[in-house]
Amino acid sequence: MADKPRSFQEIILRLQTYWAEKGCAVLQPYDMEVGAGTFHPATTLRSLGDRAWAAAYVQPSRRPTDGRYGENPNRLQHYYQYQVLIKPSPPDLQDLYLGSLQAIGIDLGLHDVRFVEDDWESPTLGAWGLGWEVWCDGMEVSQFTYFQQVGGHDCKPVSGELTYGLERLAMYVLGVDHVMDMPFNDPDAPIALKYGDIFRQTEEEYSRHNFDAADTEKLLRHFIDAEAECQRILDNPAVDPKTGKRIVMAHPAYDQCIKASHLFNLLDARGVISVTERQAYIGRVRALAKLCADAFVQTEAGGYTAEAAE
Amino acid sequence: MPNLLIELFSEEIPARMQAKAADDLRKTVTDGLVEAGLTYAGAAAFSTPRRLTLSIDDLLAESKPVREERKGPATTAPEQAIEGFLRSTGLTIDQLEVRDQKKGQAYFAVIEKPGRKAAEVIAEVLEQTIRNFPWPKSMRWGAGPLRWVRPLHSIVCILSDADGNEVVPVDIDGITSSNTTKGHRFMAPDAFTVTGFDDYEAKLKRAKVILRADERADAIWQDATNMAFAAGLEVVDDKGLLAEVSGLVEWPVVLMGSIDDAFLGLPPEVLQTSMKEHQKFFSVRNPKTGRIEKFITVANIETADQGATILKGNQKVLFARLSDAKFFWENDLRTVEREGLEAMGAPLANVTFHNKLGSQAERIGRIATLAKELAPVVGADAAEAELAAKVAKCDLSSEMVYEFPELQGIMGRYYAKSAKLSDAVADACRDHYSPLGPSDDVPTEAVSVAVALADKLDTLTGFWAIDEKPTGSKDPFALRRAALGVIRLILSNGLTLKLSDVIAKANAGADSADLLSFFHDRLKVFLRDEGIRHDVIDACLAMDGSDDIALLVKRARALQDMMGTEDGTNLLQGYKRASNILSQAEDKDGVEYSFGADVKFAEGDAEKALFAALDTAEAAIAPAMKAEDFAAAMSAMASLRAPIDGFFEAVQVNSENEIIRRNRLNLLSRIRTICTSVADLSRVEG
């Protein structure tokens, strides 16, 4: 497996194949704007409760403040993360992870791979865990975290989370210095496309939008709406009056939490949030994440059983 | 006697926690063994990124039997008392002995604890240790409840002696002990068995693991310095980084790489900080030019290409990092050259320092006003001090300091120079934060001193004015450090400064007396480290002028010196005696004896000698005090010791003759006056 991949997409495909072979459900990206793969409900919500889980997926992620009009060699406002979440964390998770590096062409006999302390914390999700940044030859290529708490709930059992920053990892494996020069499909394909052919223009458009054009008043209104909607959804009784079934709407509520989080990121990029307000906004999103986590553990996927509830 | 080997093998332990964890393992296990009666000859603990290891030599194979006797309640005691005794001893009533006592009979418990095998005790102690280990932060993993710093994988626990070795059986939530461990993660991942510590250490080395952190550090330092020396360069010393890097590798491989020419113009501090913080690289300097020209990185693996791939990767990461740093540096220089340093700080108007104390810009304005006021006292030019204060924090708005906050001040100095400001102003940018810690250098250049003092005094008076003082262990704004900084600035520079005046100037809203007493508390801590007793300081604090720190310390040092002499301690006894007699008499008579002792009523030589000695001392003390020559004043005071002793030996103060008695009491009051004028001896213990 030490043969080198030739393109960005080949690296993604190899990761998909590898984790599929290791038994993960290969999911598709979540269909909403998120700041990181962790926000996908397949991670945030599924790390709660006692049900076993194993999922891997690519998640397009957006960090409006990181926009550089496509000029910076490795900063983007839209990028991809590869995310793996396994619950309970298997005892050989480190070895599984190292196997995935080999799968994408990193020869562990030639490179220096290190696990360097990094305590992960997401103030917006009310989540934290312990683990490492994984370094390959001095470069951070992944985050490796054992979740301890999410949405204010203790994780029992503990999930192991792996997050790969795909562009940076791929640039390293492919030996490319500027992200826009990276081959997206095979360089010998009849129509060979580079990362820049696909994303340079959108980086420009979104950079302008995020920094200067986004309507801050509307964004703020939408933030308030999403916040209210999240709470309103969860205020509904657990039992659906129409079907007579118990249906706790944790996921629809969590969509609103995701929305609020992204709107906050946009407001932040527009520079309209002061240092003191910043904490307050983060606290508001965290409050939503907690409500959603509380709701999720009241669902079947979150470990709820009618017997236990009695 | 057997030796014990324990290894706790886990996923990567944070470098900063390893040394303490090894020590905690040694302490906890040995304490537990000793408490259970198992003594030993020696114990040593070791750590690598993946293991904590403990080796104990010559452990007792078995603990001695212990016989314990405990006296219980009387046989006639109420039932609850007897039941309580049974509970606490774990015995039944027929197991108790009844013995005759002076007052009737009492129950006795005789508890025989048989000796226990070492293995049994070790298993217990190790389990307790693992379950209660004092990690600064620990975690759960998988589905179990066990906590460790990162997932714990295996345990070696063996007892060995001349006849062989045995595994001490331990089972902690399914992790069972064995005599098996693993080598280096990539170079020797296979499991192997060990028979004892020496075998373990030797086999680990063959499996590419250096067990001892200091051995790894020495190897890194030696290779690094040799490599640098061969290139005509030197490694920049960094003990903290060396310790950290030694905790990141089991098998250190030192590699030296080049820094691209494009970055050699960056300030050395920038190169060093960026390489250290982001990459954990050592900086390699050209001793002739002082420039950082290369870096050293420490890998954890030997490779077929002698580390070429690793070095290339590291160099690439560094290139990206330094490109960022260069971009910031050039942007900052452009801003400063175009608009000046003060303009660079313009955004500080929008940065809140504290919501009750306004913006950073407002704070800088206050500091500038105060620095100007303080300038004459510290010997600085007022306009220059004011200017320095105005620009000293402007680098906080620079892109470089935004990226590397630890470069605040250092960048300010570079930017001040490129803005063509004077060296004194540029140095103040760098030095006005000092002194930060108790051992940090204190600025001595006048402009720096003025700004450093103004900065700290503004902070202190500001937080005092809004009543945000340190409480207990909480000091979020580092006010104790600021106060100590002021004290050290004053003392190191020999400044004459009335703190109460300066406090009033800095912020009229601050409770001056309260802040002053905070300074005094800090001063006590500072002087205590210098060996000056707290009661000596109290004796000096009670005197006028105690808001002049330099004066206060001068007085305290003189008093401390005097109290170190025999005359001094005896004088104190004499003074206390005089003072006691006097206050008793004053209580009894309802008057204060303070004036009018006349030598004509003196009887005998001793009393006359005291009169004469007091005259001499008073004559010497007054001018000495005026000249603030406390040493001379104290020495004059100490010279009273012999006459006072002589007086008390020869004379009965409470004479039958009321005139003589009053005269003597008035004489004693002269002693009291002297002994509370140079410093308040009533506050000195002894």
Protein model, in words:
The complex is a heterodimer of chains A (310) and B (686). Chain A is α+β, with helices and mostly antiparallel strands and 310 residues long. Chain A folds into 2 domains: 8-209, BirA Bifunctional Protein, domain 2; 215-309, Methane Monooxygenase Hydroxylase, Chain G, domain 1 (Up-down Bundle), CATH 1.20.58.180. Chain A is built from 9 helices and 9 strands. Chain A has helices spanning 8-21, 41-44, 93-103, 166-174, 195-213, 216-235, 250-269, 275-296, 306-309; strands spanning 25-26, 53-62, 78-87, 113-117, 120-122, 127-136, 139-150, 153-154, 160-165. In chain A, strands 1, 2, 3, 4, 5, 6, 7, 8 and 9 form a 9-stranded mixed sheet that branches. In chain A, helix 7 (250-269) runs antiparallel to helix 8 (275-296). Chain A is globular, with a radius of gyration of 20 Å. With 686 residues, chain B is of the alpha+beta class. Chain B folds into 5 domains: 3-62 and 117-206, Alpha-Beta Plaits (2-Layer Sandwich); 67-113, no CATH class; 213-338, no CATH class; 346-560, Hypothetical protein af1432 (Orthogonal Bundle); 565-683, Orthogonal Bundle (Isoleucyl-tRNA Synthetase, Domain 1). Helices cover 51% and strands 14% of the residues of chain B. Chain B is built from 25 helices and 18 strands. In chain B, strands 1, 2, 3, 7, 8, 9 and 10 form a 7-stranded mixed sheet that branches. A 4-stranded antiparallel sheet of chain B has the order 13-15-16-14, sandwiched between helices. In chain B, helix 15 packs antiparallel against helix 16. The longest helix of chain B has 32 residues, at 308-339. Chain B is flat and about 100 Å long. The two termini of chain B are 53 Å apart. Classes of the chains: A alpha+beta (310), B alpha+beta (686). The interface between A and B is large, with 38 and 42 residues.
